[in-house]
Amino acid sequence: MAAWRVLARELEVYRRRTPRSAALREAARAVLPGGNNRSSIFLQPYPVYVTEGSGCRLTDLDGHTYMDFGNNYTAAILGHAHPAVVAALTAQARRGASFAAPTAAEVTLARLLCERVPGLEQVRFTNSGTEATLMACRAARAFTGKSAIAKFEGGYHGSHEHAEVSVAPTLDRAGPPDAPAAVPSNPAIPEGVVRDVLVLPYNNAEASIRLIQANRDRLAAVIVEPVLGAAGMIPAKPEFLRTLRSVTQECGILLIFDEVISFRVAPGGAQGLTGIRPDLTTLGKIIGGGLPVGAFGGRADIMALFDPSGGSPRVAHAGTFNGNPMTLEAGAATLRELTPAVYEGLGALGHRLRLGAQKALEEAGLTGCVTGVESLFSLHFAPPPVTDYRAAARGDREALQAAVVMLLNRGIMLVPKGSGCISTPMGEAEVDAFLAAFREVSSLLATG
What we know:
15% strand; 2 domains; alpha/beta; seven-stranded mixed β-sheet; Aspartate Aminotransferase, domain 1; 16 helices; Aspartate Aminotransferase, domain 2; four-stranded mixed β-sheet
């Protein structure tokens, strides 16, 4: 597979198709570092600049239309400009965007979440998933009186210091597979923070038990994504999650489910599917209806740390836009659209796409696999099975980049890492269009 040759040819096509995006990116470089405001969406040589979105389609500066399978990193579960969300936002905008006072909207959305998510007895809102995981970890440390947090290699929990350890370490620095090293993601992470992060191997129950038990006296919490998102939509094995629940209870350690992504797999998230109830849960993305949002919650005795009604809370949690009504009205409108039947339809389309894409790889004779669960999927040019970060990291990155650019040139948008998801405006026609484009991409990659 001569991926470099295919990539070079497709990048030339891409540049010819998107001159206005190229020009705006150059202008952006004067006021934004690298012309970029969000590292995760940067695509070499530059990303397309979007002017509008409607349903499951986006339009760029040059007038090209794309089927949006990226869905803003899984957040746009109803697609773009959904009428119910637009109506909720319009009505709230007329009443005011935000206040230094609570509104009924926060009670409404909190109730909806607590009714749906088994592990949520009480919840608090933030403005991002990063803030949600930060506050969940802080709550765990305050509740247990211990300082260290365990996370999984390849897990992304936002951009606070404890989360920025071993997100995407190079394999030469990652340490043994069954005892991963704690590798800071950038030079700004203090050594003291790195020492307080225990890195565990994803989907390896035996090694995780051993490491958790050996560090039980210093661990406040284990935080895990039921679907390892940034590493390529890798589902946790249910028995692995059950093991984590058992060993954390045995050791007096809190279990945090980061469901910022996995909440879109079922009405109650991954914990609703598996029946495994964590102590704390973090949410984001789809619960804001397209606006910035995050939430954390769980057991009432833990969340009591934030209760200010008796004076100063044990753990303060402030923020000018926490629980702002624009976001929460949009979030409530979104959740009301997400009935069990809607989730079932999303999952069926996701299954159809994963099977079809896997068949395309096999028919082209390419080494690769497609991971995911329900409405989530990710492409890997790596030998199957891909069940952890290291298996994904050994994949052919040049082939993946080529596939993403080739699909973009054919009107299909994924996120730059090659993952995507289904939104409610999509049907079999959109999935079939994706598969037709991917079959062509796979054939071209195979022949060079």
